[in-house]
Specification:
By secondary structure, the chain is of the alpha+beta class. It has one helix and nine strands. Strands 2, 3, 5, 6 and 8 form a five-stranded antiparallel β-sheet that branches. Strands 1-9-4-7 form a four-stranded antiparallel β-sheet. Strand 5 (64-72) and strand 6 form a beta hairpin.
Length: 127
């Protein structure tokens, strides 16, 4: 039994590390549109009717459209929840919006813009 205790502890530690990182990744999704890119799409964030917050920030001036989309898990229809239009004058502007859809589904973000815009954003479940 002494031979198996260290291995068991290592397996438990690995399991806990995996579950905590997996849990953290399901609470929020980060997305960044770098300069010299014109279209990016985030990973999907699953919700069961919870409220989500969206926090975009434009770091380098440019023209960009930011879309918060919701894909219904039952019907697979995609709904536009929010559209933000960034202009070069809005550099450094930090916004925070909230969204809620009562149906279970997936939120995700798409950013389209010119090659000058640098935008970072976080889509997160609100407790």
């Amino acid at each position: 039994m002494k031979k198996f205790k260290p291995m068991l502890l290592v397996m438990i530690a690995a399991f806990l590390m995996f579950t905590s990182s997996a849990f953290a990744s399901t609470r929020y999704v980060d997305i960044t549109k770098h300069e010299n890119e014109n279209h990016v799409q985030s990973e999907k964030l699953y919700t069961e009717g919870e409220q989500v917050s969206f926090d975009p920030y434009m770091m380098a001036a440019g023209n960009a459209n930011v879309y918060v989309l919701f894909e219904d898990a039952k019907t697979e229809n995609t709904i536009l929840m929010s559209q933000l239009v960034f202009r070069p004058e809005m550099k450094g502007l930090n916004l925070l919006t909230y969204h809620r859809n009562p149906n279970p589904g997936y939120y995700y973000v798409e950013i389209n813009g010119d090659y000058n815009a640098f935008i970072t954003a976080r889509l997160k479940k609100v407790k």
